[in-house]
Amino acid sequence: MKLHELSYLLECEMHGDPEHEISQVGFKKAHKNSIVFIANKRNIPQQINKFGAVLTTLDIKKSLDLDNAIISNNPSLTFTKLANIFKRTLSQPKTLDKDKNFKIGKNVSLGENPTIGCNVIIEDNVTIGNNVTISHHVTIHHGVKIGDNVVIGSGSVIGSEGFGNVLDSDNNWNHIAHLGSVLIGSNVRLGSNCSIDRGTIDDTIINSGVIIDNLVHIAHNVIIGENTAIAAKVGIAGSCNIGKRNMIGGMVGIVDHINTADDVIISATSTVNKDIKESGVYTGIMPICKHSAWKRIAVWITKLDKLSKFLNFK
After folding, report:
1. Which residue in 25, 33, 162, 299 is a FRET match for 215, CA 20 to 30 A apart?
2. Phi, psi (deg, nearest 5) at residue 24
3. Domains of the chain, with CATH numbers?
4. Hey, which residues are catalytic here?
């Protein structure tokens, strides 16, 4: 793609030769047909003069020995658009091809411009919006509803039954049938090998704009608020209500029936075992121990400040 074509698609100012051709985005592999992304002066590569063009701010461009440039006030955001342009050239949307060995059930509503990988299973009564990408080996169970512009990573399962079980008088587990479904809004990105369980009676809901990393489990009846970001290996137990614009770090565990406020950040590996009622950054990391011991420790931790004042510690 020529430099002026890229700048037009990115809606950015262009400097240099408009006919200069760009064939890839690079950082370590410098050549005359690659464009390098620079968000700050600390990350300028040593071989900057060997690149064909740079995506950066006007201030950084003035300090570089490079004529060709695309200028952006927010180069990080512009880079996401640039990367998606090149992604489309590498992987064009595929039409529905029976040779790809996917199976679609009865009464499935499939929107315009779908991209469907190999070995995909879509069960009965599923509704899928426009411009949805479903990668290889994905299973979408019956009754699931998916909005527009959704991306589902390889190996993910949507609408499987949750972990609902009750002990009987003989201490045998009895599984609870899950009669709800999963509702996914628009502009949601779901990573690979994720599992979103259907609701027990009501639905599990992933609202619009949510982004989810790989290997995430969302249990039955969970509601995820708009534009929330969830990193890898997070587990959210049943009936939690996660607020809007939350940012949940990797390997966080959230126990069942937890509510979080909007604009909450939870540090990686934290355990959330009580409601978070105010926005802010939260961290909860302690060594594992017997629960009876932990309850005693927790009481003392909450009183350390009062104890220090009582003992006149400064």
Report:
1. 25
2. -160, 160
3. 3-90 (3.40.1390.10), 98-282 (2.160.10.10)
4. 220
